[in-house]
Design a protein that fits this description.
The protein contains 14 helices and 14 strands. The chain is of the alpha/beta class. The chain folds into two domains: about 200 residues, Rossmann fold (3-Layer(aba) Sandwich); about 150 residues, Rossmann fold (3-Layer(aba) Sandwich). The longest helix has 21 residues. The protein is globular and about 65 Å long.
């Protein structure tokens, strides 16, 4: 007996729907992801020579708490597992192995510092675990050909250095330059980028270079040597502790060169105030985000969201700190990438989504700046604006500058 035509059609529709349902509901997970949870792992210098960066971790954790309270990402709560590595590469290796092999995180996130990231880069790439939004601008962390599981959150140090070189050539073309740098990929990239940017003039303009080790107690002797070179422009590429020391020492020595300071050491409360605000006056750097101390952002919607977040979720942290704004922005970027992953929470898809972002505008991005990543350009940040410290806050000047540098 045959079914009536209308009944047959209904049955066909039901069968078709039943066959389609698994495809529609199909979810793909790698270790660290379930219907209810996304495990994310991080090491941070909560102690040690770069402990100022520990504030970043606290703000990132607060942001994740807020997201979880709001229902998580696509219905899943983020389980952020944080360990202190004291900015010590051997500890980073130990803790990252624990995150991957014991905690079984889906991805790492925002491991802070060039030496710690360098120590685990080969391991994470061999394990095919994303080294997501690495907290370093060394060019080795934006090298998809050799490290396809690593993407940096920070601007390339060499790109930043190219901007400084452009500024020096335009405003101080006859400068005698003294360089202080950390003796690792971070410092060496800043030096390389400056020399690239200065081009043929580099050899004649750079009169002294001094490096320091992370284990050094101070950079006092380096500063004495650099002053003695007769330099009238100080290219200071040091991390927060040593930046504060060098600013103080320059003042003690009565050395008053044009002073350029790398962006990662520009936090007012954590670096410039401890160094002496008057000592830090007129230092030049760059930025790629809004400064909470800048009154021009008082009515900015993104800044309002940031300040409301800090007041509610991280009330004990310094909302005016560049480390807080950085933590807020990187945590928001993590959430954006995870949201783009949908129900395909695999490590490969995380990298796919992180490297195909289109015109994403973070709350704290300077006007005219946005994030776009492509298959052949993985740089999250490549735009800058110059700024000068006026003794109380950083003041932006000049146009938005984009560096066209790409790693080979």
């Amino acid at each position: 007996m045959s079914l009536p035509r209308t009944t047959a059609a209904a049955v066909a529709l039901l069968l078709g729907a039943a066959l389609m349902q698994p495809a529609l509901a199909e979810k793909k997970y790698d270790p660290g992801a379930t219907d209810t949870e996304i495990k994310v792992g991080q090491t941070m210098p909560m102690s040690g020579p770069a402990s100022a960066f520990g504030n970043i971790a606290k703000v990132e954790a607060a942001y994740i708490r807020m997201i979880n309270e709001q229902g998580g990402v696509n219905g899943r709560k983020i389980n952020l597992i944080q360990y202190d590595d004291a900015y010590s590469p051997p500890k980073t290796v130990e803790q990252v192995r624990k995150l991957v092999e014991s905690d079984e995180v889906l991805t790492t996130f925002q491991i802070i510092g060039t030496p710690p990231n360098a120590a685990v880069q080969k391991y994470l790439n061999a394990k095919k675990v994303p080294q997501l939004l690495a907290g370093s601008g060394a060019t080795r962390f934006t090298d998809p050909k050799n490290y396809p599981w690593t993407i940096s959150a920070n601007p390339s140090y060499q790109s930043e250095a190219h901007i400084y070189a452009r500024y020096i050539l335009a405003n101080h073309p006859n400068a005698k330059i003294a360089i202080l740098y950390q003796n690792d990929d971070l410092g060496k990239d800043y030096v390389k980028g400056l020399k690239e940017g200065l081009g043929a003039k580099a050899a004649g303009m750079i009169v002294a270079e001094a490096s320091y080790e992370l284990s050094d107690p101070t950079v006092d002797s380096q500063m004495v040597t650099l002053k003695a070179s007769g330099a009238d422009l100080f290219y200071n590429m040091s991390t927060p502790k040593f930046a504060a020391q060098s600013i103080r020492k320059a003042a003690e020595l009565g050395w008053k060169p044009v002073h350029i300071l790398e962006v990662n050491a520009t936090a007012v409360g954590q670096v410039l105030i401890p160094a002496g605000a008057e000592n830090a006056k007129d230092i030049i750097s760059v930025n790629y985000g809004k400064d909470p101390l800048d009154p021009q952002w008082a009515n900015d919607e993104g800044m309002k969201r940031y300040k409301a977040f800090m007041a509610k979720w991280a009330p004990n942290e310094d909302a005016n700190s560049g480390y807080a704004t950085y933590g807020y922005s990187t945590a928001a970027m993590l959430v954006h990438i995870l949201q783009r992953c949908g129900d395909e929470l695999t490590r490969a898809n995380i990298m796919k989504q992180a490297t195909s972002i289109t015109s994403y505008v973070p709350d704290l991005a300077l006007p005219g700046m946005s994030v776009t990543t492509t298959a052949d350009d993985w740089r999250i940040n490549k735009q800058f604006q110059m700024m000068k410290f006026d003794g109380q806050r950083w003041v932006l000047f000049g146009e938005i500058l984009t560096d066209d540098y790409k790693a080979d």
